[in-house]
# Entry
Amino acid sequence: MSEPQQPPVPPSAQPNPAFPPAPPAPHLAAAPQYPAGAPQYPAATPQYPSSPQVPQQSSGQPQYGQPPYSQQRPSASGSGNPLARTAFIVALVVAAVGVLQILMQPFVLASFSYDASSYGVFSFLFAVIVFLGSAAALVLGLIAARRAGGQVLAGIAIGVGGVQLIGVVLGWIASTFYRFF
# Structure
């Protein structure tokens, strides 16, 4: 007759020869001592298989002792939200266009010989480009924030697009007041 099969012992319950058990604390009682007449067995190192074979259940779930990370995980390249990435890139491009306008201002003023109407056309064209781009980044960021994945990029796009949009609108309001004074 054969013996009944026992479930495998989990790795956490197996003894580790590299770390022997610690001696008892001084305030606790020592481990019981056995009489000298007890049979002595030769010290043998346990033989563990290099990779335990754990059978799978029919449902595909890992059995006890198998790490859960051995299942299929989505790859890093396939995950994410492409709309959030697009909104982030649009927001960065819009911010770069705004910085480019600021850096070009002295050269444009010098080339137009301080002509106010020519400079007004120049700044209006850049403002329209920044306004449309920041509105697109804001809308794409708001849509992407509701989808799974990429909330950080969507949040950055919302922030950058919103700040640029507010800046352009406040600039237009300020230039409107300059006409009255």
Q: What stands out?
A: DSSP finds three helices and no strands in the chain. Residues 82-180 form one domain. The two ends are 107 Å apart (CA to CA). The chain has a mean pLDDT of 76.
